[in-house]
Amino acid sequence: MSLNTWKKQYYPTPASRCRKADAIAHSLRKWRGLRPEALKKHKVYLSGSTMLDNDVYFIIDASSCALCRHHLRSEGEKCTDCPLHQTLGRDCDDGRGSPYRALTAEYNPEPMIAALEKTLARQQRKKKAKKKKASQAKRSTSSPTKHPRRV
Predict the structure, then answer these.
(1) What does the pLDDT look like over 60-102, one tens digit per residue?
(2) Which residues have CB under 8 Å from 103's CB, separation 6+?
(3) Paired residues of 52 in beta bridges
């Protein structure tokens, strides 16, 4: 087991190649892989925001985040159009108490996992509502027009 086996399981597609529609699920998969049992299984460890396997490393930051790849405009700027920001009401790395800082300071991925799960559920509800609305609109425009009977 190694960083390569960890990537195969939790980060098989680089964030730069992830579709925008899949970004939340991609991020959630990566963060679930940061749980202590996953790290231990793959014999990797964290040091701040860096995952290590002897002399090989992987950085957990905006460059490996599919959401950041699609929603971060430039370093230091707020990510207001990011679905995770919308769930949290702030940036995920916004100082003490933020989900990202929980990982880098306390090695605790759970706050970010919980926030991403909430974000994914919110996205799924939005998609469902949008489909329902489209279906209702389609039904209302495709209802047959009644013509008066000819005698």
Answers:
(1) 999 999 999 999 877 667 788 999 999 999 999 988 889 999 9
(2) 34, 46, 49, 60, 109, 112
(3) 45, 57
Query: What pTM value is reported for the model?
Result: 0.83
Structure tokens at 3: 């960083």
Residue 125: in which H helix or E strand, if any? helix 110-141
CA separation (Å) from 130 to 19, 72, 94, 118, 126?
20, 25, 31, 18, 6
Give the whole-angstrom CA distance, residue 83 versus residue 116. 9
Relative orientation angle of helices 110-141 and 23-32, to the nearest 10 degrees: 160
**What's the one-letter identity of residue 49?**
S
**Which tokens go with 13?**
């597609």
